[in-house]
Amino acid sequence: MKKITSALLISLALAACTRGESKTIEELVEISKERISESMTEAEMVGEEAIRAEVSKLQDDLTALLQSAEAGDMVASLGLNSVAEQINSLLPKAGATSRSSLTELSKQFQILGGGTEAQSDQVKVLIARTFHSLASEMESTKFLKK
Questions:
Q1: How many domains does the chain have?
Q2: Cβ 113 vs Cβ 102: under 8 Å
Q3: pLDDT tens per residue, the chain (146 residues)?
Q4: Helix axes 25-42, 120-139, angle to 10 degrees
Q5: Strand locations in the chain, DSSP E?
Q6: Is the torsion defined by CA of 24, 107, 63, 140 positive or negative?
Q7: Residue 135 exposed, middle or buried by CB count within 10 Å (0-12, 13-18, 19+)
Q8: pTM for this entry
Q9: Which of 101, 115, 136, 142 lies 20 to 30 Å from 36, alpha-carbon distance?
Q10: Does some domain include residue 72?
Q11: Residue 13 CB-density burial (10 A; 0-12 exposed, 13-18 middle, 19+ buried)
């Protein structure tokens, strides 16, 4: 019985330990920033400069929010609501697979923007997820749904 109990405790302790699959928030942000930059460079959007400009502006605004969050500042709700509006304006042009994730991200920006200020870690994770979703869309349908 003692052996079973000790084996169970050891296996539970090992199961609770991280196994190297976790990344810091900063690593997640860097990975997603690189991915969106690459997808924006590689995306061929002949005749669709307006969409590219919209996505570039959103990318710039997200980067500005990220810089504010990285400085450890509480992020003002105005910038968060602006990003939510920009995502909403891209929704009708998004492909079916990206639309639901972008809708959810927009809602989360609105929720965080509903208060006076948001915590920097919350904003960083949300920005990383948004970069990831934008990159996925740019790698596939490129907001060219007609």
A1: 1
A2: no
A3: 777 776 665 666 666 555 556 888 889 999 999 999 888 888 777 668 888 889 999 999 999 999 888 887 677 778 899 999 999 999 999 998 899 999 999 999 999 888 777 788 889 999 999 999 999 998 888 887 65
A4: 30
A5: 75-76, 117-118
A6: positive
A7: buried
A8: 0.80
A9: 115
A10: yes
A11: exposed
